[in-house]
Amino acid sequence: MKRLLPITLCCLATALALVAVIITDSQRKGGVAEIIEQRRSIRAYKETPVEREKLQRLAELGVAAPSAMNRQEWEIRIVDSKEWIDSATKAYLAAVEGTGKADYMLRDPNFKNIFRNAPALIFVAAPEGEFAGVNIGLLGENIMLAAVEMELGTCCLGSVQGIFAEPALADHLKSLGFSEGYRLSYALAVGYPDEQPEAKPRDLSKIKFVE
Ligand SMILES: Cc1cc2nc3c(=O)[nH]c(=O)nc-3n(C[C@H](O)[C@H](O)[C@H](O)COP(=O)(O)O)c2cc1C
């Protein structure tokens, strides 16, 4: 009996330590609801480059989204080249100089590039179609939520539609190599966040039960 006591205590301590590790781990990562609540649009990023493995993983989690009739009508192009981002920025700013189109970007005192300062971009294109917007919307949210878990920040950029409509950006758009019939819809800015914005309030009156 005397010998059993230390063994029992030891087992109990090990079990308690295991439970503590599990609880701490689950608190750190958070469930899906917590991840959704933690996500913010990030527009200030650290210089730290995003690991390619993470960018690849994000894209794979993106295409894990459901799509109408499982057609998977989407294409993703990942850009993490500073040269590419800087040359697109230079070409765009020169093309729109004096038009006011870039004013909202240049108002940012920490302006680095026209993609909300991100060091990496995930471009998403889809063909025209009834469910195209739904498909790639689901894809994008998958990526943005997975990024939170990787401690990465993101911002959905619809502005790329206007940016790449500029003839001066034609070569950059072409270099993305989207297939015939596919149209660039948005890009996700990705990087390690250098800001922690407050959550923007949501209008819950948009939700109604129907009796
Ligand atoms: C389709 C779409 C396009 C967007 N385009 C831009 C954009 O071009 N530039 C930008 O800074 N934010 C853009 N946003 C981010 C929204 O401004 C942001 O989601 C909204 O203000 C709510 O803030 P939150 O994401 O932090 O909750 C876009 C979001 C969506 C869904």
Give a short summary of the structure.
The chain has 8 helices and 4 strands; from the N terminus they run H-H-H-E-H-H-E-H-E-H-H-E.
Textual characterization of the structure:
The chain has helices spanning 4-29, 32-38, 52-62, 82-96, 103-106, 132-149, 160-163, 170-176; strands at 75-79, 120-127, 153-157, 182-191. By secondary structure, it is an alpha+beta fold. The protein folds into two domains: 4-30; 41-191, NADH Oxidase. Helix 2 crosses helix 6 and helix 3 (52-62) packs across helix 6 (132-149). The longest helix is centred in the first third of the chain and has 26 residues, at 4-29. The radius of gyration is 22 Å and the shape is globular. It binds flavin mononucleotide. Flavin mononucleotide (FMN) is lined by residues 40-41, 43, 116, 155-159, 186, 200.
Low-pLDDT runs: none
| Molecules bound to protein | flavin mononucleotide
Mean pLDDT: 92
In DSSP terms (H or I, runs of 4 or more residues), the helix count works out at 8
Under the CATH scheme, the architecture of the largest domain is 3-Layer(aba) Sandwich
> What is the general shape?
globular
**CATH class placement of the largest domain:** Alpha Beta
Query: How is the largest sheet built, in terms of strand order?
Result: 1-2-4-3
What structural category do the secondary elements indicate? alpha+beta
Please render the helix and strand layout as text.
Elements: H1 4-29, H2 32-38, H3 52-62, E1 75-79, H4 82-96, H5 103-106, E2 120-127, H6 132-149, E3 153-157, H7 160-163, H8 170-176, E4 182-191
Antiparallel strand pairs: 1-2, 2-4, 3-4
This protein binds flavin mononucleotide.
Residues 40-41, 43, 116, 155-159, 186, 200 line the site of flavin mononucleotide (FMN).
